[in-house]
Amino acid sequence: MPEWLVLTLAMLAACAVVVIVTLVRHRAAPDDEDTSETPDVIEYMTMWIGVVYAIVLGLAIAGVWEGRSAAEDHVQAEAVALHEISARVRVYPADIRDQIREDVNAYVGQVVHTEWKTMADDGRLTPRGDELFYRIRADVTDYRPRTDFEAQAYQPLLDQVTAADQARSARADSMGATMPGVVWFGLLAGAVITIGMVFALQIRRTVRELVLAGLFSALIAFLLFLIWDFDAPYTRGITASVDPFLNLFPHI
C-alpha cells in the first residue's frame, strides 16, 4: 500500500473516530446535561497534557530526523571514500590502477542497483557487497609500493578503505527502526489521552467544534505517521538516497 494512502487513511480514521464518538456521546447524554461550563481543573489538566504531549512529539520527531540525517551522512562518507580510492590510485601502475578502479565500480554498481533494494525489502546488506568490498581491500592492502611516490600514497589509500568500511558498517547498523517499542507505546497512549481530553471539555455537536476536533486528531495522526516514516531511514517513504554514489560515479 502506498505511503500517501496509509497517511490519508490514518488521518481520515482519526477524524471519523472523533466525530462518531462525539455524536454517540451527544445522543446518549441526558437531556438536562449542562454543557455551558467546564470545571477549571479539567481545563488546566487538558492544557498541560497537550503541552507535555507536544514536547514528546517534538523530541520524537527530532530523534528520528537526526537518525535519518545520520544515515545520509553514512552514505555520503562511503561514497566519498570510494571516490577518493578511485582517484588516488592514479599514481599506481596502470594494471593495478585499472584493477582497483574496476573493483570499486563493481562494488558501487552492486550497492546502487542491488544492495539498496535488498536493504529496503529485507533490511540487510548483501553477501555479494561484502565480497566486492573485501576485494577492494585486498587490492589496496596487498600491493607493495615500488617507489617513494607510491609509498606516500599507500597509507592514505588504506585510510580511505577504513573510512569506507566504517561507513558501510554504520549504514548496516542504521537500517533498523530507531524508536523502541516502549516509546511507541507512550506516543500512542499519549495520543489517545490527548484526543480523549477533548471530550472532557464537553464538546458539542456543532459544525465548528466537530471540524476543529477532527483537524486536531488528523494533525496528531499525521505527526505519528511522520515519526513512523522517518524511523527506518532506508526502508520507508522518505528514505536516504543513493544520490551520493550516483553523483560521484555517474558512469555506474
How would you describe this structure to a colleague?
There is one protein chain. This protein is an all-alpha fold. The protein contains eight helices and no strands. The two termini are 31 Å apart. The model has no long low-confidence stretch (mean pLDDT 83).
Strand pairing plus helix content: what structural class? mainly alpha
Low-confidence stretches: none
> How helix-rich are the residues, as a percent range?
over 70%
Number of distinct helices = 8
Percent in strands: under 5%
Order of helices and strands: HHHHHHHH
Whole-number average pLDDT? 83
Question: Gyration radius, to the nearest Å?
Answer: 27 Å
Shape: elongated
How many β strands by DSSP? 0
Strand count, sense and barrel status of the largest sheet are: none
What gap, in angstroms, lies between the N and C termini? Answer: 31 Å
Secondary structure blueprint with pairings:
Elements lengths: L2 H26 L11 H49 L5 H29 L4 H16 L5 H26 L7 H20 L6 H24 L12 H6 L4
Helix pairs in contact: 1-7, 2-3, 2-5, 2-6, 2-7, 3-4, 4-5, 6-7
Short description:
With 252 residues, the protein is an all-alpha fold. The protein contains eight helices and no strands.
What structural keywords apply?
252 residues, 8 helices, 78% helix, 0% strand, mainly alpha
